[in-house]
Amino acid sequence: MPEHLHARVESCYQQAEAFFKQRFVRAEVSFKLRGQKAGVAHLTENKLRFNPQLYRENREDFLRQTVAHEVAHLIAHQLFGLKIQPHGEEWQLIMRGVYGLPPNRCHSYAVKRRKVSRFIYRCNCPEGEFPFSAQRHALVGKGRRYFCRRCKVTLSFTGEQRVE
């Protein structure tokens, strides 16, 4: 894990400790996150996961905003418990008051989408084409059935597969 990220996590904890005048249990930090999320806080496990690809591509903002965003979730959990809203007023207080940052719910990093296979299913409707994911297609193979909402016919696989 990059030392700058680890140092920023520690800095966020120290800022929160100075603000609230109490000690916080440090989280386990990993770089095992893929896809569209920049970071995830696992509250009950006291664990942070970060996306290495988005970190590399957005390093400065990631260190400033994303790391603070995720640490703020853990701080809010340790202070207020599980009954608070994920991006509610307690979390927002920490983002604004402790870190001096806007309480943005989502990042705006460019995310490269990977190519996915779609399995084409049809019904009796003229425009009745349904692209299924590989996961849904596998469920059909195990006996699950899907129906068209308009004509009520069971969707059937055409044998066609596309990569999007």
From TrEMBL:
PANTHER family: PROTEIN SPRT. The lineage of its organism: Bacteria, Pseudomonadati, Pseudomonadota, Gammaproteobacteria, Pseudomonadales. GO terms for biological process: response to stress. Residues 7-158 form the SprT-like domain. InterPro entries: SprT-like_domain. It comes from the Bacteria. This is SprT protein.
